[in-house]
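User: Predict the full complex structure for these chains.
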Amino acid sequence: MASEIGQAIAAGILGGGVYALMAAGLTLIFGVLDIINVAQGIFVVLGAYLSYVLSVHLHLDLLLGLLITVPAMFVIGLVIYWLFIRPLRGAERTSMTLLACFAVALIIEGVLYQEFGSNYVSLNAWYTTASVHVFDFYLADIYLIGFGLAAIAFGALYLILYRTTFGRAVRATMQNQVAARLIGIDVNRVSAVTFGIGTAVTAIGGMVYGAISGGFTPNSSYDLISRLLAIVILAGMGSIGGALVTAIFMTTIEALVDIWQPDWAVVVFYLAMVIILTFRPAGLFGRRAVRAQ
Amino acid sequence: MTSDRAAGEAAASEQDGGRPVAPEPGTTAPGTTAPATTAPAAVTPAAGTRHARPLRSRSVPVAGVAVLIAVIAVFPLVFTNPTATNFGVITLIFVAVAAAWNIFSGFSGYLSLGHAVFYGTGAYFLVVAAKDWNLNGADVFWLLPLAGAVAALIAVPLGLVALRVRRHTFVVITIAFFFIAQLSASNLAVTGGSSGVLAPIPNWAAATFNNPFYYLAMLLAAAAVALSVLIRRSRFGLQLRAIRDDEDRAAGLGVRAMPVKLAALVLSAFITGMAGALWVYFIGQAVPQFVFDPLFDLAVVLMVFFGGLGTIAGPVLGALILEPTQLYLNLQESNSYESEILFGALFLVVILFLPRGVLPTAGEWLTAGRIRRLRGDWLAWRAGRTADRPVPPAAGNLS
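Assistant: Here is the predicted structure of the two-chain assembly.
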């Protein structure tokens, strides 16, 4: 029992790093563009399938494949932003962009079903089956690799946001779009690149998810997006650090509940969200919502 | 934004033949004694001439509605083919759901992607209650209002939690409720888990099997639309739209936002629950992945956006056009993925090119055309007068 709990906590924390990365992309997009990218779940699955194609058809190592899939997802994000998100303006933009993302998700899901069918596929490499012995339990290598990748990606994200001119523009846009425009920031360009970055992290998330989950189909996106949305909302929209803490916390709790009640483990996400929002409508780490202008 | 909104409002009320409403609730206190503004006659010049023709006419919608009802009523008598009446039943159920969704989301501006919760609650209530109480045949229909009441009851706690937050967060919470409901249906004992619950088998003749469902669905759809009209014309409807335009300002002007929003959600859930119950009796079985289908909410939202959010006729039109199309596509395609792609593409087209829906956009074109014509008439009239008299009178209202 003790080893089971220890294993659940370790897996929860390490797996949480990957969820945190995907949620960070979501919350970054929200902070800059003020849209909820409900397509994030299918982006993760798309990233996983890209890794799958590279590893099965080109026999490329999963980690090396990331050198291709990350830029590919970045470009896909840019194109989707440019075609479907950028043209939407006006009073109903909030709901319109959300629905547009949903529509994009449906199309990608349909295409993935056409290409790969509804059978479960999984990503395999030597490190997805090997495991290390820690204390009195075994931990799959892929959890450690996934956590390491997430840490590297978070570091890169931090450097981009806090150590570059572009990052300063991004943060300015997050704070006040009109003011950012006034001081000469090209908000359209910042938005496009942010959307690209927010989707690019799903390539990493997808690779790790595909290897950890043991099997995925296009339908997995619903499970993913509902967890990601719960994390982001719970953390408070637009808070990247909050997303990190919340994701690790939630996946750990879920892994613990999973020991006793595997069927209901996911409900923990939603219940926590509902309870916390009842008392803190802005989320745990969110600023109080400013009145929409 | 304000002018945008006002234009849409004007076009929308023209479509419905509704009475004029204050286009900017911020300037006119909603529900207070402020006089009705923007009466069209006030804009047009004095009566007696062509120019006095009001910008909106009631006769066309009334005649159109009468024809539509007549066509829908005789449809199953003319097309007795079961496939056709099958399409008819499902379509009318979606008319009811789209109108119900619009009563809450269209009027209040709170976009709900969780109405499948109410639909599914109604559906599961019907099959479980019919099984437990041994109801059969036409008796099962008595459960419909009860199913609606159960869905409405569920809507109260959900609304109390979700309606505390706005915009994106609200949408996401409704999505979360949807997933909770789906998961519960798959795991609870009362819902029969993933194998679901069978509905009782109706005991009437096979030849006219669909007809009772058809006319009940028609009744439900008509009730939903009638309720929309009543709400839209009432003080309650005005309060809802004031909340949509600016909730803080509406609250500042005395609208008690929470009870108003909650009442709209409960009414909407009631109809949606009845529709779900009718649907499941027609389909014959409640299984979690069909009863709680993520595409259900999207389909309804697309119908309403396609027709025109917040209008009366929009959801009806959207459901009447889109649902048969989708059913037909599902019938044609060998797999459901192609129709999913098509559905997504259609959604994008509507959002990008008809963001306010077919009806308001068409209404704007009509209004713009009429204004252009009126202006042309007036210019010609002025030119004539100028020719008669060298000194023209003071310019009219339309200059």
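The interface with chain A takes residues 1, 4-5, 111, 161, 164-169, 171-173, 175-177, 179-180, 183, 186-187, 248, 294-295, 298, 301-302, 305, 309, 335, 337-338, 340-341, 343-345, 347-348, 351-352, 355-356 of chain B (CB under 8 Å).
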